[in-house]
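Example (one chain per record):
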Amino acid sequence: MATKVSEVLFAVFPELRYQPTTKRVRAGIDGSPVVDTQDALLVWEPKRVTPVYAVPEKDLLARLRRPESEDGTVEEHPFAWSSSGQTGLDPRTGFRRHTTPGEELDVIASAYILPRAAFRPSDADLDGYVVLDFAAFHWLEDQEEIIGHPRDPFHRVDIRATLRRVEISLDGVKLADTVGAQLLYETMLPVRYYLPPADVRLDLLDASSHRTVCPYKGEAKYWSFPESDRGRNVAWAYDSRFIDASQIHGLVCFFNERVDVAVDGELQEHPVTPWS
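Predicted structure:
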């Protein structure tokens, strides 16, 4: 019997998962080193969709200690991956919302004390390792800066040019119309339509101060469509820091969860994602 690979991946989603990486991984804070290792692991706690780094305690250049203060509440952002109802934790859910048994630890690096920025899982396969809060530190793989979260070796981004006509509308207002789109295919996410700015009604959009980062595509700036309740931060464009996303540098994309997308005149379904 054949096996659908995505079903295998979803089957282990509720479990603690890890994968070794051969890359040299370093972390620091304001120039103070925290770790330098070539034996890091990528770790996904149960229900997490993005990995964090686990590093050998022997390679830490900082001290760990048990927290001196009581734990506070960590806000959780659950989401449904699809109409099947399987739920996970949105990456906005903080590091300290742990979904596997273990011990929280403070990290002391030079003059810095980072409360509960480390976690020692109670798992035999991860013995000798601690998981570090990605957001607390500046990270490098070899000599390349890593932003957002570590890159997932089982996650892929492919970009393909198309001559199909792509039209974007919101509340009956056409916001874009092009035959020069770039289609971005990303693992477990809907296809995204990146459009030349000349084919987008930027005059109908307001620039936003909102920014996000993606470890595969870079930093995104946003626009809002003020005439719609669904138009807040509805479109974005990435900067040019990553050469492996060069086909979409400067192109504009809309959340097809919230806008109406027609391809060659055929209206597309609204996908179900954390941004729905």
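Caption: The chain has two domains: 5-146, 157-267.
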